[in-house]
Amino acid sequence: MAFLSAAVTRINPSATIAVTQRARELAAQGRDVISLGSGQPDFDTPDNIKDAARDALARGETKYTPVAGIPELRRAVADKFKRENGLCYDPADTIVSSGGKQIISNAMLATVDEGDEVIIPAPHWVSYPELVCLCGGTPVILSTSLEANFKIRPEDLERAITSKTKWFIFNSPSNPSGVAYTENELKSLTAVLLRYPHVWVLVDDIYEHLVYDDFKFKTIAQVEPRLADRTLTMNGVSKAYAMTGWRIGYAAGPSQLIKAMEKVQSQLTSGPCSIAQWAAVEALNGPQDYIKRSRVAFQERRDLVVSMLNQAKFINCPKPEGAFYVFPSCRGAIGTRTPSGRVIQSDKDFVTELLNAEGVAVVHGAAFGLSPNFRISYAASLSDLRSACERIQRFCGSLRSS
């Protein structure tokens, strides 16, 4: 339509939300659908956090809050970064937003102009390049491979940096692959970034607490403190505490950047929900037992899904170190034919036919910038995951060479 802005025509709808909505529609029609497209824990928010929200309501904490968050939550954020990551921030150098997505949006709107480049490793979360495009910037996608464990090498990063590079967006553990970078791998990347002082770093640590086996999480500014003055470290309560609907993300970084992000937020949304902020204070300051329990449950689910997918014809599924996703390759299925005669020509075809034939909703890899793969969220019950994997095995077994 002629009245639409250039900005809105540069972006696409969220593929993960679209898949989840399609699964809901089919279920409403009576289809037996297992939806593995949504990136949210299936557990309930812990009781102590819900109790804190009720207490806040009882106290009448229902008014507008300061734009960057209530002082108690900004202090809790600063304390969390110090306690868990060894990062020293004043509460004034933190910001609280309505979800992690708004943190990224604020940062891009505050800093990115037309022609600026933002380096994004692929596979990547669906919203990173879209938010860059919304601001008129240019996403520079660094593709990886299953053989490289979906990780970029320092030489890949260095080749991508130009005089126009404004940001490097980094997510570990990763959505959609679940891979996490070791301390030594991070050091190899920070050594490159130190040579380019004009490049800022946006670190998305939203899956920090969801790491498995003996993996030790580290964040970039912790590994290389000399980058702290141009690093925005963001996190949130959604994944770690099963609080996706509460919509609280937070970040810390250089004062000038935080103030600019606060300025943007003041005109877009103002402060986040007051009750959700008080719940987040309890999440960060209160008992952390839930994190340990959920980590054990997610690891069991990961191991089941990886094992069963690798028993499926045409599928190659690496075992990720973190998050609650797997990103298997369906390369072997490309060119095969379904029982109905449809030729699978892409990962989008693969997931579409899987949904039609077996009622399993997953997200195609092209949505995350890398094909031919698909993403499964194993934030679902063991019984649903087992049934879904059996259906995927059956679907793959039905495919024939064309």
Give a short synopsis of this structure.
By secondary structure, this protein is an alpha/beta fold.
Give an account of the 3D structure.
The chain is α/β, with parallel strands linked by helices and 402 residues long. 41% of the residues lie in helices and 13% in strands. Strands 2-8-7-6-5-3-4 form a seven-stranded mixed β-sheet, sandwiched between helices. Strands 9-13-12 form a three-stranded antiparallel β-sheet. It has a two-stranded parallel sheet with strand order 1-11. The two termini are 41 Å apart. The relative contact order is 0.17.
Gap from first CA to last CA:
41 Å
Shape: globular
Mean pLDDT score, rounded?
Answer: 96
Overall number of strands? 14
Q: If strands are numbered along the chain, what order do they take across the biggest sheet?
A: 2-8-7-6-5-3-4
Task: Note the beta-strand portion.
Answer: 5-15%
CATH architecture of the largest domain: 3-Layer(aba) Sandwich
Any idea of the CATH class of the largest domain? Alpha Beta
Largest sheet, described in full?
7 strands, mixed
Please estimate the helix content: 40-55%
Task: Please state the CA-atom Rg, rounded to the nearest Å.
Answer: 21 Å
Structural class by SSE content: alpha/beta
Q: Into how many domains do the coordinates divide?
A: 2
Q: Are there runs of 5+ residues with pLDDT below 50, and where?
A: none
**Secondary-structure element string:** HHEHHEHEHEHEHEHEEHHHEEHEEEHE
CATH superfamily of the largest domain: Type I PLP-dependent aspartate aminotransferase-like (Major domain)
What is the fold named in CATH at topology level of the largest domain? Aspartate Aminotransferase, domain 2
Number of helices: 14
